[in-house]
Specification:
By secondary structure, the chain is mainly β. It has strands at about 5-10, 15, 20-25, 35, 40-45, 50-55, 65-70, 70-75, 80, 85, 95, 105, 120, 130, 140-145, 150-155, 160, 170, 180-185, 190-195, 195-200, 205-210, 220-225, 230-235, 240-245, 250-260, 265, 275-280, 280-290, 295-300, 305-310, 315-320, 320-325.
Length: about 325
Amino acid sequence: MSSIRIDRVLPEAALPGGEFLIRGANLGGEERPHVLFGDAHGSVVVGSGNLVIAKVPEAIAYGDLTVRRQGESSDPYHCAIGIQIADSLHPVANPACDSEGNIYATFSGSRGQKTPVSVYKIDLNYECRPFVSDVMNATGLAFDQDGLLYVSSRNDGTIFQVTPSGNIATFVEGMGIATGLAFDPAGNLYVGDRSGTIFKVNQQRDVFVFATLEPSVAAYHLAFGPDSYLYVTGPTTSSFDSIQRIAPNGDAEVFYRGLGRPQGIAFDRDGNLYCAASYAGRRGVVRINPKREAEHFLSGHGIVGLCLLPPRSMAVATNNSIYRVDVDIAMA
């Protein structure tokens, strides 16, 4: 029986380039340990007797984590590692998932840049194909109850409605620097304007100012929680940003403070909130439970958004790629 023992690995998941913190016994010593993800070697950042910090290799890694030293190997420990399913994209917010499990992501481009493709569709076989080509600076994505996709343009403040076949029409205009999108249970659409306004658009396309927040340096990201409150992130220049919670009457309060550049957010069935952000100096995805207790859930760099996939997994968007991470999370 090996004397090397892994007791716990944190966080629960990582993307290539992210880091796992490994605790156990006899993990390190005079000889630096080797950490393997399947057959792929990860680089060891810290190695001591009961603690190892290892970076996930950029190459695709299959298999469980093991620690090897002086000819001995620990028992394998399962970790969730993201697999890249699409690249050469430019998401700036959450990807979106339809009822069949297809994933949609943007190629947003720089402000005022007309890109050949605005939105890509990644099917269940992970084939990535152009889906929408007529939206400049596509930013936020959201599906309504009828399966129609809505896309915001931060260039001209227009929200577009897209059918499952890819036909596009203007839904509403004049939304400022339109960023994040979310639907409430009644079918009203909420739009984040980077200058600080959250708009509400009812099903008759009447537009109301729902709430006013501080301006964001990047974008607003929106999601409705199980309490029917609207949750909003908008990164500022601070490293101690907050997640705002807005009541149905438009009153806003701080839900959680202490994140670095919080961006895309989503809720699971148990009411846990997931946010692309830095937490305690570590980048990735943070999970905040209904008691407002936060933990580092996924390690990775350049993460801008996420969405939950059926039956129990997550799509994570970096600034140029989409990853699938098989974690045991149920969609809301």
